[in-house]
Design a protein that fits this description.
- The chain is 51% helix and 11% strand.
- The chain is an alpha/beta fold.
- It has a 4-stranded mixed sheet.
Length: 190
């Protein structure tokens, strides 16, 4: 089964943001981010289903638009078809799109400490982990990246750039634990 076929199967049942769709195919197109990969998949699907403009293709475009993808939405609107309402990402509840909003809170707290290296950990509620496991099992996604990894990497990149600190996976001087659902964090030093 191709990536496009698998992606449309997933999107037909669950709306996924670009990050979460891209994570399901993390083995493809290495050197890109999950967000870029997810957006590329949705772009290809939107192009594929934009012609011919028949009922089945309109249905597929609706599924893609439902996941918040503007190209699919605009394609439908151009044909004077009202796109389905955008739904929250089934896996991350659109928290990956709001990751920048966590940084100021984390940054303010980290300013209380002196350190050169750090590591980010993410605490997710059990229902998020179960949804992810169920999706992987349902669609036989053996090479998908876990949501925790995405949060850790994306928040880590922001901290590294914004605070000019280095990630250390072995012996970090400070560990930041993020809870994106509660939009909170804790720190511990070594």
């Amino acid at each position: 089964m191709t990536i496009q076929e698998k992606a449309i199967q997933i999107l037909s049942k669950y709306p996924l943001c670009d990050y979460c769709l891209g994570r399901q195919f993390s083995h493809a197109a290495t050197g890109t981010t999950n967000q870029e990969r997810g957006k590329a998949i949705k772009t290809v699907l939107s192009m594929e289903y934009s012609k011919p403009f028949v009922e089945e293709n309109i249905s597929h475009l609706q599924m893609i638009a439902r996941s918040g993808f503007e190209i699919a939405r605009k394609t439908l609107e151009k044909k004077e078809i009202i796109a389905e309402k955008t739904q929250e990402c089934y896996l991350c509840e659109n928290m990956l799109d709001k990751i920048d909003e966590l940084l100021p809170k984390v940054q303010k707290k980290l300013e209380e400490y002196e350190y050169d290296t750090f590591l980010v950990g993410t605490k997710l509620e059990e229902n998020w982990i179960e949804r992810e496991k169920n999706l992987r099992r349902e669609f036989e996604l053996s090479e998908a990246e876990f949501l925790k990894q995405e949060f850790n990497r994306e928040i880590g990149k922001l901290i590294s750039v914004k605070l000019s600190k280095l990630t250390d996976f072995k012996i970090p001087q400070i560990v930041v634990e993020i809870d994106p659902i509660k939009e909170s964090h804790t720190e511990s030093t070594r």
